[in-house]
Design goal:
The complex is a heterodimer. Chain A is mostly beta strands. Chain A is built from no helices and eleven strands. In chain A, strand 4 (about 35-40) and strand 5 form a beta hairpin. In chain B, a hairpin with a 2-residue loop joins strand 9 (about 95-105) and strand 10 (about 105-115). Chain B is mainly β. In chain B, the strands form two sheets. In chain B, strands 2, 4, 5, 6, 9, 10 and 11 form a seven-stranded mixed sheet that branches. In chain B, strands 1-3-8-7 form a four-stranded antiparallel sheet, with no helix packed on it. Classes of the chains: A mainly beta, B mainly beta. The interface of A and B includes residues 30, 44, 87 and 96 of A.
């Protein structure tokens, strides 16, 4: 089975900060990772697919990178609307989630 | 744009059954692979399984915790996806989401593009 380990579980940051969330996949069976944003009481929303492709309508401050076993989501300059929980996903496995909180 | 609307959730006793529906619009449902994802209260996302398009065989894959108890089906004439849940357990309590599944067919990349708003299933005596 694929295991996806996401870190950190929580992240405190301020508006304007640059933040990075990381996922490690084991074993390495593909080069694609997807990233989702979820706000309380809402469905997840796809942000990034195929590791680095930005879904239409998603702000360009979001970016994805990585290959092999390590992948990351970066938000270049946090906006108030970005405080939410983020999940990575590879095949049928989701990461544990990262809750991005206001510092 | 694609829209998915789940329904059918509610309170059911352990050992009971429930059928969820997911009504699709805004895209060619018959060509789409579809996935179910659930989220227990306060927990993360868990993939439940997927059903391929009928043109790709119409077969289903199930996550281990639900295999043998849950069944996916689809009615392409009515653009509706179904999840039949039998022998329900308290640990099946969750919000259930349907989503379009870009893992094959006309869409590759292994991601879930459009999601419904979810429907809550509570299994409790």
């Amino acid at each position: 089975d694929i295991q996806v380990t996401q870190s950190p579980p929580t992240l405190s940051a301020s508006v304007g900060d640059r933040v990075t969330i990381t996922c490690r996949a084991s074993p390495s069976i593909g080069n694609w990772m997807a990233w989702y944003q979820q706000k309380p009481g809402k469905a997840p929303n796809l942000l990034i697919y195929k590791t680095s492709s930005l879904k239409s309508g998603v702000p360009s401050r979001f970016s994805g990178s990585g290959s092999g076993t390590e992948f990351s989501l970066t938000i270049s300059s946090l906006q108030p609307d970005d405080f939410a929980t983020y999940y990575c996903q590879q095949y049928y496995t989701f990461g544990q989630g990262t809750k991005l909180e206001i510092k | 744009e694609a829209q998915l609307v789940e329904s059918g959730g509610g309170l059911v006793k352990p050992g009971g059954s429930l059928r969820l529906s997911c009504a699709a619009s805004g895209f060619t449902f018959s060509n789409a692979w579809m996935t179910w994802v659930r989220q227990a209260p306060g927990k993360g996302l868990e993939w439940v399984g997927r059903i391929k398009s009928n043109s790709d065989g119409g077969t289903s894959e199930y996550a281990a915790p639900v295999k043998g108890r849950f069944t996916f089906s689809r009615d392409d004439s009515n653009n509706t996806l179904y999840l039949q849940m039998n022998s329900l357990k308290t640990e099946d309590t969750a919000v259930y989401y349907c989503a379009t599944d870009c893992s094959g067919g006309s869409c590759y990349g292994g991601y879930f593009d459009f999601w419904g708003q979810g429907t809550l299933v509570t299994v409790s005596s």
